[in-house]
Design brief:
Shape: elongated
Order of helices and strands: HEEEHEEEHEEEHHHHHHHH
Bound molecules: zinc ion
Number of domains: 2
Helix content: 40-55%
Largest sheet: 6 strands, antiparallel
Structural class: alpha+beta
Length: 339
């Protein structure tokens, strides 16, 4: 998902506040929007309805979302980096001196066809919309167009969080700071830390995440590619240890074929073998040819793929261990029953 305008975050407030990269511009469109409806006023003597058409001018979706985000009291169910668990996080909402007017700006109505008057309504709505937005910004943002949003978790310790936004003169919202950091909110590696023997893999995943949160997608791709290569190499070492692989053939093979060889011998999980034809190619293309923007856009999907591979690897090892233990036990039972 690409986030370009503020209303793209509707329903994803916590993501914007805690996980969305810093210094990334998000547009707030202030132009009025329209919706239309009609009503039947009455029927003439031939039973033909007299219809009134309404064109409602509303504040822009982006503006409406900003107002909701900032002024309404909200409870998010989200991860607290201090509590290290998910719970309700509260934003109390700013109290405004004057209550906000409803988002309807004006309504133009006509019976048979639109008149020139429509233009006046249109122009008027555009003006009112901008004026109202500026009034709102004056109340909420400081004189440098900076806003700090304060939140707290609902544990007995009431951990405090804050997020800082800058509004540019051309109405882009930019998150310029947050505490705790984006990295602190990233809880996704917790389960892998426990099971992965190679700690450098979790460190590299964290590094990839940090680069991504600073919009440095190419660097993030590089880390993901290293993890991928490391996983392949680790499985190769294992196969070597068990005398189960033609070393020379492996070393001379391209990465894609290396995975194939390992999979045939049962050393890599099926999912990795399935996505093998393209994942390495995408990661390499990111490192060598794609721009930051494209890498940022695709990063989440590739990270998810790597996490799935890790998950499967952990599961594969668990099963292998269980198989060995069970086989031993069966052997013992068999021996005992044979006597
Ligand atoms: Zn907490």
């Amino acid at each position: 998902m690409q986030y370009e305008r503020l209303s793209d975050f509707a329903g994803k407030g916590p993501y914007l506040l805690f996980d969305f990269p810093l210094y990334t511009k998000v547009k707030i469109n202030t132009s009025a929007e329209t919706t239309e409806d009609m009503e039947i006023l009455d029927y003439n003597e031939d039973d033909i309805p007299n219809i009134l058409h309404n064109i409602h001018f509303l504040e822009n979706e982006d503006v409406r979302y900003l107002k909701t985000l900032v002024t309404q009291e909200k409870n998010f169910y989200y991860y607290c980096p201090f509590c290290k668990r998910e719970l309700q996080i509260i934003h109390k909402g700013y109290e405004l001196e004057n209550e906000l007017p409803e988002s309807l700006l004006t309504t133009y109505s006509y019976m048979f066809s639109m008149s020139d008057e429509f233009e006046e309504y249109d122009e008027d709505a555009a003006k009112v919309s901008v004026k109202r937005f500026e009034e709102f910004i004056d109340q909420i943002f400081d004189e440098n167009r900076v806003l700090q949003m304060n939140l707290e978790c609902t544990s007995k310790d009431k951990h405090k969080f804050y997020v800082i936004f800058q509004l540019t003169d051309d109405n882009y919202l930019i998150k310029t700071g947050q505490y705790p950091s984006i990295r602190d909110f990233d809880n996704s590696l917790k389960e892998y830390r426990k099971v992965l023997k190679d700690k450098s893999v979790t460190n590299e995943l964290t590094n990839a995440e940090i680069l991504k949160t600073h919009n440095m997608g190419v660097g993030a791709f590089l880390y993901l590619r290293r993890i991928f290569e490391k996983l392949i190499f680790e499985q190769f070492e294992l196969a070597k240890l068990e005398n189960n692989i033609d070393e020379q053939a492996f070393n001379e093979a391209k990465t894609q074929d290396k995975v194939k060889i390992l999979h045939e011998k049962g050393y890599v999980p099926t999912y990795l073998a399935e996505i093998n034809p393209f994942i390495y190619a995408i990661l390499s293309k990111g490192v060598h040819q794609l721009g930051e923007k494209e890498c940022n856009l695709h990063y989440d999907t590739l990270r998810e793929a790597i996490l799935l591979i890790l998950e499967e690897k952990v599961e594969m090892e668990r099963k292998e261990k269980l198989k060995k233990v069970t086989k031993n036990e069966l052997n013992k039972i068999h021996t005992r029953l044979s006597n």
